[in-house]
Design goal:
A hairpin with a 2-residue loop joins strand 6 (201-206) and strand 7 (209-214). It is built from eight helices and 16 strands. By secondary structure, it is of the alpha+beta class. The radius of gyration is 24 Å and the shape is elongated. It folds into two domains: 8-273, Cathepsin B, Chain A (Alpha-Beta Complex); 280-351, TTHA1013/TTHA0281-like, CATH 3.30.2390. The longest helix is centred in the N-terminal third of the chain and has 20 residues, at 63-82. It has a six-stranded antiparallel β-sheet.
Length: 352
C-alpha cells in the first residue's frame, strides 16, 4: 500500500470552553498520584486492534472519543496482563471482545459527550463525560462504519447509561495535561499512552527517515494517540533524535512522527481499580456428593441446584462452562460447619 504524502484530517476537535482552555481542572490528581506504571513507555504491546473513524459513506468526526477509547483499552489490557484475576471482572462488565482484548465503545463516549456530526467535540466535554459517566464495551453499544450519523448518534438508553455508571463503580477514570515538548511526552508515556492534537502533516524525508512532519497547517483539528517514543534511532547511519509512534483513526493506523512535530494539548489518563468481584471456589465434603459455591473470605456458601427455576445472578459471572468439570475442593465437615448456606444457584446458569 502506498503511503499518502500529505495527511489532512477533516477534523473533530473543537475548542475547549473558554473558562477551561489551557487549564488543569481542580479535580485532577496531585503530581504524586501519577506514579510511573510503565517504565518502558511502550504502550503498543497492550494495544487492541485500531479502529477507523471514516468510511466511503461518511466521517464520524469522533476522533477525540475513538482515541480516548483506544487509550482506555491499553490500560485495561495492561491491567489484565499484570493481574489475570481481573479478566472475569472486565468480562462480566462486557468490556472484552471475543479474542479477550478490551474493546470500548467510542460510540457511547461520542454520543454521551455531545459530539456534533460534521464538527466534532472538545477534549473537555469528552474526558469529563467519561470521568462522570464511565464507559461501556463495544458489545454493549456497538457500531459499524455502515451506520448513518442518525444511527451512530442515536440517544443513549437509560440501561446503557446505567451500565457506564456500573463500570465506574469498579474502575475510576482521571486525566491530566502533559506539556507538549518531547521530554515531557516521554515522561508522560511512563504513566499512560497519550492523546495529542495535530493538524496537517507531510510524509517526507527527515534525516534519512520517512516520517510525518509539520506541513505548516495552522489549525489543530484532530486527536490521535502516541503509544511510544523512540530516541536516537539509527537509520542508514543517520541518528534520528526523537520519533513518536502514533496510533491513528485514519489509515494507515500506525504512523511515525518526527519528534520535531508540534503536538498540542497532550493528555494522559489514569484508570484506578476500585473493587474486584468476589473470589469463588467449589467445595464439598467427603461424606456428601453435594457441591457448594464458597465466596472466599465471607464464610457464605451457595448450594448448587439442577433446577432451572433457581436464579444464578451475579454470583456466577466469574464461571464459564460446566461446573461439574471444574476443580472441586474437598473440605472437612468441621470447616463446612463453620460456613453458612445463604442461598442457591443453578448449575444450568453456568452455561448461560
Amino acid at each position: 500500500m502506498s503511503m499518502p504524502k500529505e495527511f489532512k484530517p477533516l477534523g473533530g476537535v473543537l475548542p475547549d470552553p473558554e473558562h477551561n482552555a489551557g487549564k488543569n481542572w481542580p479535580f485532577l490528581g496531585a503530581e504524586d498520584d501519577w506514579d510511573i506504571i510503565e517504565p518502558s513507555g511502550d504502550w503498543g504491546k497492550y494495544a487492541s486492534p485500531p479502529e477507523a473513524q471514516d468510511s466511503w459513506r461518511n466521517n464520524r468526526f469522533d476522533c477525540v472519543s475513538i482515541s480516548l477509547a483506544g487509550g482506555i483499552e491499553k490500560h485495561l489490557n495492561k491491567m489484565m496482563a499484570e493481574d489475570p484475576s481481573l479478566r472475569p471482572l472486565f468480562d462480566s462488565l462486557n468490556l472484552l471482545n471475543k479474542e479477550g482484548f478490551a474493546d470500548i465503545s467510542e460510540r457511547f463516549i461520542a454520543t454521551g459527550s455531545g459530539t456534533i456530526p460534521g464538527r466534532g467535540n472538545s477534549q473537555y466535554a469528552v474526558y469529563e463525560f467519561v470521568r462522570k459517566n464511565g464507559f461501556v464495551g463495544e458489545k454493549s453499544w456497538p457500531s459499524t462504519l455502515e451506520m448513518t450519523d442518525g444511527e451512530f448518534y442515536s440517544k443513549l438508553t437509560p440501561e446503557i447509561r446505567a451500565l457506564g455508571k456500573k463500570v465506574l463503580e469498579y474502575i475510576g477514570f482521571n486525566y491530566k495535561d502533559v506539556e507538549d515538548d518531547p521530554d515531557h511526552r516521554r515522561e508522560g508515556l511512563k504513566r499512560s499512552s497519550e492523546c495529542a492534537v495535530v493538524g496537517g502533516a507531510y510524509l517526507g524525508n527527515e534525516q534519512g527517515a520517512l516520517l510525518y512532519r509539520n506541513n505548516g497547517t495552522p489549525s489543530y483539528n484532530h486527536q490521535l494517540q502516541i503509544y511510544r517514543q523512540d530516541r536516537n534511532v539509527d537509520i542508514l547511519g543517520e541518528i534520528i533524535p526523537v520519533i513518536d509512534k502514533v496510533e491513528d483513526s485514519y489509515d494507515p493506523f500506525l504512523k511515525d512522527y518526527a519528534g520535531t512535530y508540534p503536538f498540542k494539548y497532550v493528555k494522559i489518563i489514569k484508570l484506578t481499580l476500585k473493587k474486584k468481584l468476589p473470589m469463588f471456589k467449589l467445595v464439598k465434603t467427603a461424606d456428601s456428593p453435594a457441591v457448594y459455591l464458597l465466596v472466599v473470605g465471607s464464610g457464605n456458601l451457595y448450594a448448587i441446584s439442577d433446577s432451572e427455576e433457581v436464579k444464578g445472578g451475579d454470583v456466577l459471572k466469574t464461571f464459564s462452562g460446566d461446573y461439574k468439570n471444574a476443580g472441586i475442593s474437598t473440605i472437612s465437615q468441621e470447616e463446612f460447619n463453620g460456613y453458612k448456606v445463604v442461598g442457591e444457584v443453578s448449575a444450568k446458569k453456568f452455561n448461560s
